[in-house]
Amino acid sequence: MEYKAGYSGLPLAVTISKLSMRMIENGIHIWMLGSLKTYFCSFSIDMDLFSSLEQFEFCAFASGSSGNCYYIGHPEGALLIDMGLSARKIQRNLKRIGKNLSDIHAVLVTHDHIDHIRAAESITKDHRIPVYATKGTQRGMLSNRFTAQSDTSCFYDLTPDKPLFLAGFRILPFSISHDAEESVGFFIQNSHKRFCLATDLGFINETAAFYLKSANIIVLESNYDEQMLVNGPYPLYLQQRIKSERGHLSNVQAAQFLSEHWHDAISHVFLAHLSKQNNTSETALKTLFDQLKTKGITLNSTIHISALERTIPSPLFRLDGN
Fold first, then answer.
1. Per-residue pLDDT tens digits for 35-50
2. What is the pTM of this model?
3. If you write DSSP's letter for every residue of 11-41 in order, what string do you get?
């Protein structure tokens, strides 16, 4: 089956095997060989095609309470998870790795706290990039004075446990426990890599555990050291919120989970969303390595484990299919 469309006088043809069409106000999205092309942010075409055979790329632009934004892509398409920096900072980070906002096919949003949605107005109004979020997260974005003027014609619904296909990736959002409405993590696959991101969660529920255990590349929250939290500047009520099941994951919780479910297919582990006041990279990593040692797990030289910096971008990781 062949579908043809035009934009700015340029003809476009794409051959597809499976086609589902849905009308969406103010938007045209077209899957091309596993990639989503955005033309206007008055209808959408989704095609279930083969996932990309290209390298899997990952870069953290920021990870922490000051802002969160992660790049996931391959040479033919890319996504952002969260947009908790200004659009200008996001653009600057993309330029650093040889990309541009025009390369971003969509933004996936975990939840509606400002450190995850800061750029929403600019992303939707100025750049017309589709934003995928749960209904609860969309409501939260529109009730936040910093993002209330976001253009909702660029909003698309995410439903936990319902997969979608964007930019050559199969994406499955899953519910997590946090003090925001309808928070989600993401399990993202292409033809040879399985990536899971779970941050801002008070505990690892059964669903999150399933996807984390299935991944090769893991981005998992390791927010606080328990002693630093107790002895630090936070008042008791805030300590209790952080430690609650709708709060954040501690170093020990993250390390115990990873060590108990370690498997040979894991290639990369990134500890994420570290607290400025109640954690350090060294503390989080030591906790994890100590737990792995306790379990008798020996790491080979090909495995990458690191803690993501709060405000310093990570390198661009290019992960092949081996």
1. 343 434 523 333 334 4
2. 0.84
3. EEEEE-SS-EEEE-TT-EEEEETTEEEES--
